Amino acid sequence: MPQDKQTNRRIVLASRPHGAPTEANFRLESQHVPTPGKGQILLRTIWLSLDPYMRGRMSDAPSYVPPIAVNDVMGAGTVAIVEQSNHEDYQPGDWVVSQSGWQDFALSDGKDLFKLSGPVLKHPSWALGMLGMTGFTAYMGLLDIGNPQPGETVVVAAATGAVGSMVGQIAKLKGCYVVGIAGGEEKCRYAEDVLGFDRCLNHRSGDLSESLKRYCRDGIDVYFESVGGPVFDAVLPLMNTKGRIPVCGLIADYNSKDAPEGPNRLPLFQSAILRKRLHVQGFIINQDYGHRFNEFFQQMSQWVAEDRFVFREDIVEGLDNAPETFIGMLEGKNFGKVLIKVAGDTPTGA
Amino acid sequence: MPQDKQTNRRIVLASRPHGAPTEANFRLESQHVPTPGKGQILLRTIWLSLDPYMRGRMSDAPSYVPPIAVNDVMGAGTVAIVEQSNHEDYQPGDWVVSQSGWQDFALSDGKDLFKLSGPVLKHPSWALGMLGMTGFTAYMGLLDIGNPQPGETVVVAAATGAVGSMVGQIAKLKGCYVVGIAGGEEKCRYAEDVLGFDRCLNHRSGDLSESLKRYCRDGIDVYFESVGGPVFDAVLPLMNTKGRIPVCGLIADYNSKDAPEGPNRLPLFQSAILRKRLHVQGFIINQDYGHRFNEFFQQMSQWVAEDRFVFREDIVEGLDNAPETFIGMLEGKNFGKVLIKVAGDTPTGA
């Protein structure tokens, strides 16, 4: 079902998931397109970013972001075009990054918008990727918390994912030895051959602990954590003294309801923190580093202009495919940054 | 058995403990007092510091300090008097902090010595306490990693122990609300009435989670970790967003051999690190902060001169009582900084 000018299709949270989300947790609705009031802007969604953190917002457990209310539209970062504007800073046809969520149209008062200009307009979806929250997360987590030094070993999980692929490439730029972990041989070949990682290990084949040991002969100085679970268990024993673990996500645990069966590995982690003097730090990019976005954006824009990075987008067409795509992403079925192409540059239909 | 001039009594590691150490893991030996060679100094031990980290050195599991070899003398920080010197910087009668270990006499080349001078000579054992490794650990862990701000809530375990009592008092100096956790009513009364903590909770009575919740109404901003185990489990749910956890010890786990029974609480900790954006960092005072000892010593000397702190010493007479005292300390039987008074200022006996 394509976008049209009269109808706002939106996907709402129909119910909270127990464990892994299913399509029954989402509902597609149609409304009239809203009319912008005084000072408001009507935005039409072109690109919708799907990210693992959204799983957390579907639950009402205490978390770092408020939960989405049942029957509310699913939240998300989007790239949109201004359709109508009663705001002096925005004109129809402007491209912006917005928080429109999983829907065709949204209103904004302009405060949560970031206007796109210059080279990023050649590839607006990058504003959700390399030059957006994804790249910002990789950049700050790796450089500010991980603080990698030339020659150090950096291990990154979900190596071909949106954040992981950027972490590894930035670490290579900084002169590190980079080992990725990914699910599947194709992803691993890609990480080594295209992204330029020194190694990439398939956590679905063989003994990850053993292969990590083989390819991290000098131990691990920085582990960029976004998955948790068995990958973390394999990494921990190899962490070096004074190692750093920035934690930006725990995709392996998002769907779990209760503490898993024993043995209790918590004391083992605590003991590693003490004995190895580890620095472990969680961060949420906008809350912790929002004030440094310009610094990131300038540096990353320069690197992108110099063609330093490969950034793979896993694009699915059509808003109605968002739930299935999101569910697949949590299972690791994506290959690169997951984006829904909601519409073309000009609306179709009546 | 008192110290004499001919005999060096020393306590060696007889065997490695399995679980909690017993007296059978130690052996008292006698040797001739060694003769200092060229450039060497003969030291006579006056004060011997007993500290929980020594439990780690009795095992040969990988750790941040090399294990003590079986049949080697137990290592320890000591306050000693120079008996003989072939080193131009040291004269007989000088007081020093040394790493002489659990014995009456030791040789040194001077490189590992810290000469005592000025006011600390009035109370030389403080060089192992407030003005030594104990105070240094509290100072750096709390201020550098914990970074407490006025009005924030600081929780400290082992509140009347050597390090914990200093952490709480420094946090009070910095304008924090300080809640201690200790084992027993007497210790708790002492922490509140003498050390000036706002509250101290007895982890041996009632439900620690509930009482922590009651007395940390604004949550916990800094938890100074030295014990691990159930105290940590009670603290974690109350940690605030952007909380800090300096980890200087895990006394509850030192004697454990295997991972305890489930459920596995590791994902819960990881999830808290992420959701609350916690900063968790282990440190070993000399390795991480050795270069800042002078900064600490100057500030702390000034505070001590101003009589800002209460520092309780739990003194046991006689080197031969060191094993029993050490075992009791690991069970929390001590009350304050544990010191063995090995000898008086002048040697007795033949």
Automatic annotation (TrEMBL), chains A, B:
CDD domains documented for this protein: PGDH
EC number(s) per entry: 1.-.-.-
Protein's name in the database: NADP-dependent oxidoreductase
Domain Enoyl reductase (ER): 23-340
Keywords from the named record: Oxidoreductase
GO molecular function terms attached to this record: oxidoreductase activity
Stored InterPro entries: ADH-like_C (IPR013149), ADH_N_2 (IPR041694), ER (IPR020843), GroES-like_sf (IPR011032), MDR_fam (IPR045010), NAD(P)-bd_dom_sf (IPR036291)
Keyword Oxidoreductase applies: yes
Class of this enzyme: oxidoreductase
